[in-house]
Every structure is written in structure tokens, then in C-alpha cells.
Amino acid sequence: MSNPISKYFPLFTDTEVPHSVQARPDTGLYSAKLGIWLFLASEVMLFGGLFSAYIFLRIGAEPGYWPAGLLNVPVGTMNTAILIISSVTVVFAWASLKMRQLGKYRLYMLITILCGVVFLTVKLSYEWPAKFNHFGVFIKKESASKYEAFLGNKHLEETRQNPRWEITGHLLDAPKGSTYAHQAEHNAEHFAHETGRHDAVTPAEDDYVIQVDAVNANPSDKDNDRPHFWPREISSTLAVINAKDVESASVFAPRHSTYFATYFLITGLHGLHVLGGIIVFLYLWLPFSGGTGLYKTNPEHLANRVEIAGLFWHFVDLVWIFVFPIFYLL
Amino acid sequence: MSTTAIADTGHHGASKDHEHGEHHHPELGFLQRWVFSTDHKVIGLQYGVTGLTFLFFGFLLMLVMRWQLASPGQPVPMVGGFLRSVFGQTVMTDAGALTAAGYNVFGAMHGTIMVFFGIVPVAVAGFGNFVVPLQIGAPDMAFPKLNMASFWSFFTSCVLMMGSFFVPGSAAKSGWTAYPPLAGIADLEGGHIWLNGQTIWLIAMVFNITGSLLGSINFITTIIQLRAPGLTWMRLPFFVWAQFVTAFLLVLAFPPLEAAGFMQLTDRVLGTSFFMPTGLMIGQSVAQTWSGGGSPILWQHLFWFLAHPEVYVLILPAIGIVSEVVANNTRKPLHGYKAMVYSLFVLGFLSFIVWAHHMYMTGMGAKVAAFFQVTTIMISVPSVILLTSLLMSLWGGSIRFNTPMLFATAFLPMFGLGGLTGIPLAFNAVDLFLHDTYYVIGHFHYVVAPGTIFGLFAGVYFWYPKVTGRKMSEFLGHVHFWGSLITINGVFFPMFLQGMAGVHRRWYDGGATYEQLAGPVLHWNMVMTVSAGLLALFQLVFIWNFCTSWKLGQKVGRNPWEATTLDWDTPTPPPHGNFDKPMIVYRGPYEYSVPGHPTDFIPQTEKL
């Protein structure tokens, strides 16, 4: 056996298990196809558990504690398109193998792999890091009136919308001893460079200074009452918030709120699935004996493997079709 | 290529091996044959032996707890100093008595080990791996490498879970249910964020669940794809059906717990608030680590969504084993085989919609409680059909009371007692009184200890000859059985009496603090503890019998029990590839005492 793994772990590999390539007549399935569907059933339950947690926590959230409009919808849309394209190309790759066109197979598989890589790159190098430099401060309810200029609760009450308790934006100055001091310093420099203003850093030791998002800059603007496709520029308005008035404050990390906890857990787990898919596709694309090397000896077996990996890939795609609306749009 | 032709190549290899007898793969070293093996029989043995070891270890943890309950604060006799040096000062005092934290550690680990590291590995993975491919006439599982991966994932979880005893603060101490927010904050203050009991518990559980999931996918695929020609669905031995439904329960119920495990893990290491409510007070102040907004009830839903089907995962394989043993030793077909199969499916389906009967105390409201009350009562119908069919199978049989049959017969009333005492708990109003008392402990231990574990013992005595080629000693088997039967009732029956008197399951001193309330029933503590000690002694008889019979037991041939199913139609022990002839099935699984036939059993492969 030329399988690289069995060189180091000499296994019993000599049992011929029936139906590992050819379908069993009465079920019409080869075993791996049944296996992957069962695996996907368990995956449905895994993500089902996470999505039901999302529903449970969102329904149970106090009014104003489930944020909306914080994610970048165009980027999410682009990633959705990329995944859908890759789901199509993986079918083309499988069909090419079925027609015994190796060159086309390698091309379509390469496109699929690249789509997966682009998806992950966008997620890890742009979307997530942007969150880690975005700050949110939940104001205590009893202190909210002091920050009405940023929260706009009067307008929200008049228009019968949920109240707003959070001020978001870039952190420019943090209370003494905050873990975000370094980030604040960096942002303040950037702010001074962009605007020429040096009033962001206050001498007070227990203040948060935040360059607020457009929503908090004009909280009573009717424009905020509807969702926006294109993300809006951050304002140059500064909010100074006393630490005593703060219920909790953090960057948009998992610990920020149950919203970001579910966001990071579900997109993180989804990202791991994308990564797993890419690794399997790479294996099937490279000339390993179990990958494209199999084409010479048993092309049908290779086609089966691509079909199985493709089914998994469609599932990963499908999960994203749920992730995108519930986090980006709703 | 036709089904038969492919199957034939496997059989050809097997028959060649058979000529070499027991040493059919002389070129394979010890490691390849017994450790890194993809052979379903070896993997079944690996699971079985690991699981049995864990069962005994989990039992010993309980024994120390029982000592503490009967003689609160007294040093554990003989082994107290040894336990102090092994488990450290969190768990044992210098004098060798169990501490309060240690009691919580042992309690949490007893539950975890018995369920996830003991019974499931033995009942599902052990017996399932060894017996199912043999009974359906398959040369191996559908995915042999995946099978090996399952075991090693399980083994990783074992190492992690055992290792967690030796981190600062010792192992998990928040119960096998790991309810937040208690489990969310456990061991975190002043402790290492990763190297602490509860965090390692969660990581180990993720490995354990992964192993179980991969294993169940393998079982279902194997049963659907690799049945021998002629082995139609209604000719399957009942044990295979039980494993089939069990595997579905595992595939669908375990993932939500895995999701919940990830969530609790991030609550602990990333500071998320999935299960941490707003305004959580720790000591005198509001916890600052968590933003709040989470729900402890969410954990309970996700946990019990697994853990109720898990109850049936524990019991169904045992019912499967008992059915095989009963049919074989009554020399009669199973009564109502088809009704039993349909009951399995109804039971499997209903087990997904009863979970919240574990959560009546959360104040879910009368309407929701009524729904779960109704489904819980409904699920007793298929359970009763199964039990009644087995009882009716005894009727009019010329029963052979060998050791497997003794355990199988005792299983019936013991499981019945466990089931019947569950009915009051199904009702919201009664459960509010009995919740978290020893009554509940008595109820589910009757189901899993003299129920499931007796079923497993029946299976061990029954298939031991097939595995090793030798029978276990009947005399020692009888000693083991009668001793266990009497003492195990001494352990669990008084729990009903204590529970109805209001003794709470989490009292560390056995109720001494609440003597005014619990006084009249506290003397039962000593009865239970002595019984548990004696029960341990009788298990030593089993261990001795199990180990010595491997080399010294009475040698047997292919079919020592004169059974009909395919697992008894192979060489003993079965070679690699399992069979020495093409397996073609002509009849149902239990054709015993057919009038006019010269023998009182007709193997499934016999063509008349």
C-alpha cells in the first residue's frame, strides 16, 4: 500500500469490505454515500443546537440588548456568492470526473479550493479583525438620560421601537488600567492624524472616549430606523462616558454580548468546516494515491470521493445560507 | 459486480486464514494486532475491556462516597492514606476522609464515568462492534479505519478525563449534568483557565461525543449495507435492531450536547455568556467576567435533549442482549418479534420529545409540563411491550438456567422495578416532591444497574466463548450472580424509602445535619454501604473468572449454546474476515424447537 499513513501505522488493510465503491443493488448506495448523509444528519443537529441557542437567547434578550446592523452586509453578500459559486464548481468537478475529463476536473477543483480560501481570508483578515477594533459600551439604565444625545431613546419611544442602551465606535481613551489602553492609544493617534484634533484623550482617569458610529452620532435621525445595505462612515463625534455609568464595555469580541458570542461561535465553527473542506479538496486535487493518483487505477472511486466531499461542501454552503440572514440581515 | 461476488472475495480470504487456526496473521506484531487494529472484533474488545475497567473504577468511587454517607467524616478504612496520596488534599483530608469538595468530585465523576465511559462503551461500542457484523454476516464494519478512529477518539477522552483528577483543584465537581452557572464558574477563581477539572471535562466530552458519533454512523451504514444475502430486515436478530435504533439516537441526540459543550467551554475560557444570566452574584458582588444575557435553562434543554435519549442508549442494547439470551435458553422464538421491533422505533422516536420531564423544577408552566407529562407516559407503552414480550417468551419454554440466562431473567423484574418507579416521576406534581431525592437515584439505578449492567453481564457470559474459545466457569458465574442480585437490591431498594422520606441526593453527610427530618430512615445508610461493599467483593469473583477462563476455561466449538444466529456460524474465535463459508440466510433468527426437525434449533444459514 502506498498510502502515506499506513507506512507509519501498519494497519489491517486487507479486509475487503463490500460496497465500498460499487453500490449495493437493493439500497442503490455505496457505503460512503450513506455514511456521509448520516454524518450530515448529525451536523444538522449540531448546528441545529447552535441555531436554537440563537433563537432562545434572542427571544430571551431584554429589549435593546440584541444589536442589529453591526455587520458588513456587502462583504457578507460577496462571501455568500463565493460559496454558492464553489458549490457549483464542485459539481462540475464531479461531472468532469464522471465523463473522465481529468484536466477539467483539476481546473474546477482548483476554482472550488480558491473560493474556499478567499472566503476564509475575507473572514479572518477583514471581518473578524474589524470587530476586534470596534468598541461598545452598554450604559446603565439609570444613567441613560445623561447620554440621551447618543442613545436617542425619546425618539425610539415615540416611534415605538426598542430602546438603545449601547454606544459603539472606536475607543480613543480608556479608564486607567483598562485592558484596552493600548488599542485606545493607537486609535487616538490615528484620529489625531485624520482630523488634526487632539482633544480625544482627556486627563480624567475614569472616562471612556469613543468616536461614535453614525447611529450614535444622530440617534434621533429617522434614517437610523431602517436597515442599511452599505455600511456608513464612522462620525467624528466624540462621546465621553464615565466608567460609573457603564454596565459593561468591550470590543466586539465573543464576550461583548450573547449576540457576538453566537456570531463568533457559529461563524467560527462554520469556518472550521470550510477549512476541513479545503483540506479534503486539496488532498483530492493533489497527486496522492488516494487523491488524483486514484484516477489511474480506479476513476470511479475518485469520483465517489469527490461526490462525498461535495455533499459535505454543499452542507457547509447551506449552513452559511442560514448564517447570513440571521446575523447580517435580521 | 453482484453482491455475492464481492462478499465471496472476503470469504475466500477468511477461509484461507482459517487454515492457520488461531494464529491467522503471523506477520502482524502485537501492536498491529491488538492496539492499532481496524478489525471490528479487536476494536470491540478494546472498547469492552476499557469500558468494564471504567465501570469498576466508577463503582469504587461510589464505594468511597457510600462510606462517607454511612460514617460521615470518618477516614476511609484501609485505603484512606492511599487515596490521600493519589487524589491529593482537595479530595481527601490528611486523615484519609473524603472532603466535601472530594464528595462532589467523586459524585460528578461517578456519573460521567458510568454513563459515558462505562456503559455506552461496553453496551454500544463493545458488544455492537463485536457482535453486529458477525450477526449480519459481514466481514467487518463498513468503515474499518473510521472504526479505529472512533476508538482512539474515545481513548483520548479517557486519558483526558482521568488526567483531570491530577490538576490543581481536582476533577469536575458540578455533577455529570454540569449545570451552569455553577459549572460555568467552577474552579475558575485563582485556577488555571485550561488546566482545571470542569474545562478538561468539557474537552474530554467533545472527544467522547465525536467517537460515539463516528461509531454510530458506522453501525447504521454497516447494518444497512453489509447484511448477508437473504438476511432481510425481519430476519435480523433483535440485538441488531436494538443497536440500529440506538445508533440513530446517538447520531441525532449527541450533537446538541456537543454544541452545548462548545458553548460552556467558551463561557469558561472566552468569557461569553451563553449560560451566564444578567446580574449573576458570586459571593457578595456581581460577576464582572460575563456580560450576562445568557440562560442557564438553555443548557438544561440542550443537555437533556441528549441525556434523555441517552437513557435509551443505555437500556436498548441490554434489552437486545437479553432477547438473544432468552430466545436461546428458552429454546423458543421471541414472543412478538415484530411488535418488539416496532416498539423500538416508537420508543426511539418518543425519546426525543420527553426531555423536559427532567426540568419540572424550572417552572416551565402548566401547559409545557402537561405536554411532557403526556409524552413521558406514552413512552412507557413501547417499553412495556418490550418487557411483556420478553416475559411471555419465558412462558412454556424448557428453560436452561445457565449463567447468562440467570442474569437475563433477573434483568426482567429489575428493569421492571426501575421502569414502574419512574411513572410517578413523570407527573409534574409528584416530581416536584420527589425531585433530587434518593427516590430518583433509586429509580434510575434500578434501570441501569440491575437492569442494564445485568444485561451486560448476561452478554459477557454469553459471547465469552465466541471471543476466546472457552466458557467462563459456571460455578463462579452462579456465585457472582446470586451474590450480586441480593446485594445490589440491598444497595438500591432502601433508596426508595429514604427518598420518599425526603432525603436529598446531594447531602454530603448522608443526612446527619437534617436528622430531625431524616432520622427515621438514616439507619438504611449503613445497610446500603455494607451491601455496596459486599457487591464489590462479588465483582472480584467476576474479574477472577473473566481473567482465568481466558486460558483455563472449558474449550468449546463453534456453537456451544446451540444457537441459530450467524454469530454462532463462524469458527471460534472468528478469524480476520469472520467467516469460513459464504453466508446466505434462509430463515428468521429464532427458529427453535421447530416440530419435525431433528435438532431443536435451525441455523439461519440452513437450507432445508
Structural commentary:
The complex is a heterodimer of chains A (330) and B (608). In chain A, 56% of the residues lie in helices and 9% in strands. Chain A is an alpha+beta fold. Chain A folds into 2 domains: 29-64 and 73-131 and 258-329, Cytochrome c oxidase, subunit III, four-helix bundle (Four Helix Bundle (Hemerythrin (Met), subunit A), Up-down Bundle), CATH 1.20.120.80; 135-251, no CATH class. Chain A has a 5-stranded antiparallel β-sheet with strand order 4-3-2-1-5. In chain A, α2 (31-60) packs parallel to α11, α3 (73-98) runs antiparallel to α4 and α9 (258-285) runs antiparallel to α11. Chain B has a single domain (40-276, 291-568), classed as Up-down Bundle (Cytochrome C Oxidase, Chain A). Chain B is globular and about 80 Å long. Residues 1-26 of chain B have low confidence and may be disordered. Chain B has a two-stranded antiparallel sheet with strand order 1-2. Chain B is built from 19 helices and 2 strands. Helix content of chain B is 63%, strand content 1%. At the A-B interface, α2 and α9 of A face α1, α6, α8, α9 and α10 of B.
